[in-house]
Please model this.
Amino acid sequence: MEQPHQHLLPHRPQILRVIGLAWLCATASLPTPGLAQSGPSQTAAVTTAAPMALPDMTTIAARLSPSVVNISVRGVRKVSTAAKTTPPAGDSPAGSPDDLALREYLRRFQQRFGELPSQLNMPVRGEGSGFIVRSDGVIMTNAHVISDADEVVVKLSDRREFLAKVLGTDKRTDIAILKIDARDLPAVVLAPSKPQRVGDWVMAIGSPFGFESTVTAGVISATRRTLPGDGTVAFIQTDAAVNPGNSGGPLINMQGEVIGINSQIFSLSGGYQGVSFAIPVDVAVNIEQQILATGQVRHAKIGVAVQEVDQLLAQSFGLTRPRGALVSEVVPGGAADRAGIHVGDIVLTANGKAMEQAGDFSVVVGMALPRDRLGLSVWRRSKEVSLQVTMDDSADGLAQPVVDTAGTPINRLGLALRLAKPDELGAMGAASGLFIEKVSGAAERAGVQAGDLLLAINNENIHTVAQARTLADGSAGAVALLLLRDGSRLFVPLRLAAPPTV
Model:
């Protein structure tokens, strides 16, 4: 069911500048200051082309609106009345705002009226959107729209209502497939798989705040957008107005084809603020086909954590420009480990496709199937290495990533280091490393924190302070530090000062 939208990206104030089209056209033929006007050739050079007309969306809206449905759900959520850190099975997360607010209400209720059972079944309702993908009643929507639902009601544009059967859901991609008992329904046309273009006009249809068949329009703001905590889908970002209740509705191009499913927004208020995200239709079709064929969805797993490569990291690893996905963790015994992938490798291509960003690799892995073979080209010690990976099944239980102790100052790095104590290593789950006691200079500017554990410099594991000093003094320009922080590994690039002289 419709959930509160999360703050997905940092908010930055925007300044909008509007230029009147009439003013722009009127001044396009004015002489340029300081240039002589000596004939028709100069006049022709500064004449602008006639502005293109805005697209006529009325025909598309009239044709597609009957294919968009309103979805309302009713269900029951189990809520603990006790302030527990771990909720019972089926309960909402202990730290979710809704759950905490409800528990506080129940606590005050108990203080006034007496004890309650340890769990209560609380009725929940929600609304969203969906669209018909097959004339025999198959409907696509978001998985979060029908989450916790005991009853799913689909309302068509002609006001007919049907109880829907949930054929399957995939929380990882946020796709759900429903079926209603109806025939000869107006199905949408799904766009062929092709790259979307920034600036193309798009239309969204849905039921924001319960207002059915609402049409909004905008342009594609970005493609292949990966969001924090969601590495499976490369979203289409748009500025078409999307609000609570739009989730699950279609994003449509000017050919009248569905190119995505409206799924998330960035908002500080809970409502539309100009940044909306849609799941590409090729991802949705992949999930639909699996659900219709088997009733379930399978995803591959490779067993690595990756991060972006910025300019300093590229320089540290000898790349000519920032690109690829930098491997910061490898799961022991996982597919990547068996294939010989190392921490510090940079994935440049996967099955021949260039990986320009870390999110590109996450999407390739997320949409692969178990036992698929993935041909990788990785950058290792200043040369390309080819590897073949046979993917694991994400449903299989593999071991979690194993993340690798007054300190001696290394002025060129801006770090005060010492050997980590055995109890510190045990608490951090590491086998070895240097404990960072103090940060200054280059390390402080790069975001290194006191309490981090230094594991490696430029892909070389660090065991002693003297070794760290030697590597720092022998490096020119930049180095990449592999750190352990809060149970996760990450590479941090440092721009170094000039090496010491003797």
Q: What stands out?
A: The domain at 408-495 is CATH 2.30.42.10 (Pdz3 Domain). The chain has a mean pLDDT of 80. The chain has four domains: 67-179, 189-294, 300-393, 408-495.
